[in-house]
Design goal:
Blueprint lengths: L1 H100 L1
Length: about 100
């Protein structure tokens, strides 16, 4: 009978040890899970920041394109004005030369 009680105590001790090991493993896995969740959250925040930066890049590219278009338009208008000035100067020079020949 005492042998049987001793055997049961050994089994109980073995089960308690297994239970303690399982609890330690659970704690380890929970810690690992928390770390993975933290990493996932950081990645999500990083992905959102990357998306925001991509959007900002698109906005800046559009601004550059608009600015280039306005600069091209202004340059073309200035060329047209300069051409008109050249034409007027030529006309004035011809009129002036015509008056001197008379």
């Amino acid at each position: 009978m005492l042998d049987r009680i001793e055997e049961l105590e050994q089994k109980i001790n073995a089960l308690v040890e297994k239970l303690n090991l399982a609890k330690a493993r659970i704690a380890e896995l929970q810690q690992h899970n928390r770390e993975l969740l933290r990493i996932a959250k950081e990645k999500e925040e990083g992905d959102r920041e990357i998306a925001r930066l991509h959007e900002r890049i698109r906005e800046l590219e559009n601004e550059i394109n608009d600015r280039e278009t306005r600069e091209t338009t202004a340059r073309d208008r200035l060329k047209a004005i300069l051409n008109q000035i050249d034409s007027l100067e030529n006309e004035i020079a011809q009129l002036h030369a015509g008056q001197q020949n008379e």
